[in-house]
Specification:
By secondary structure, the chain is mainly β. 0% of the residues lie in helices and 54% in strands. Strands 2, 4, 5, 6, 9, 10 and 11 form a 7-stranded mixed β-sheet that branches. Strands 1-3-8-7 form a 4-stranded antiparallel β-sheet, with no helix packed on it.
Length: 118
């Protein structure tokens, strides 16, 4: 089983930046064998995919509304995935969840709150 631990959330003013981290662990776990990414869920809204790194070719994908502002990256040696969020907007306020997907399984972190004040 894979465990994911997010960190880096918090309260920031509009226009500010945050970097989320997601550390993965588990017996025999290797990050580059999985598709990895981030979802978010705002109050009263459905969970939406924010960004991911595909395990098949390493390509990155972003929600249209965060393109040019958010950057996903990973450090395979540390089994950690990051989400650098710049130029934050109040509409980015949500709980952010990291996930890894592979081998027929999807594992989720517990979520970290990001609040952007106007």
């Amino acid at each position: 089983e894979v465990q994911l631990m997010e960190s880096g959330g918090g309260l920031v003013q509009a226009g500010g930046s945050l970097r989320l981290s997601c550390a993965a662990s588990g017996s025999g776990f290797t990050l580059d064998e999985y598709t990895i990414g981030w979802f978010r869920q705002a109050p009263g809204k459905e969970r939406e995919a924010v960004s991911c790194i595909s395990k098949s070719d390493g390509s990155t994908h972003y929600l249209d509304s965060v393109k040019g502002r958010f950057t996903i990256s990973s450090d395979n040696a540390k089994n950690t995935v990051y989400l650098q969020m710049n130029s934050l907007k109040p509409e980015d306020t949500a709980v952010y969840y990291c996930y890894v997907q592979g081998g027929g399984y999807t594992y989720w972190g517990q979520g970290t709150q990001v609040t952007v004040s106007s």
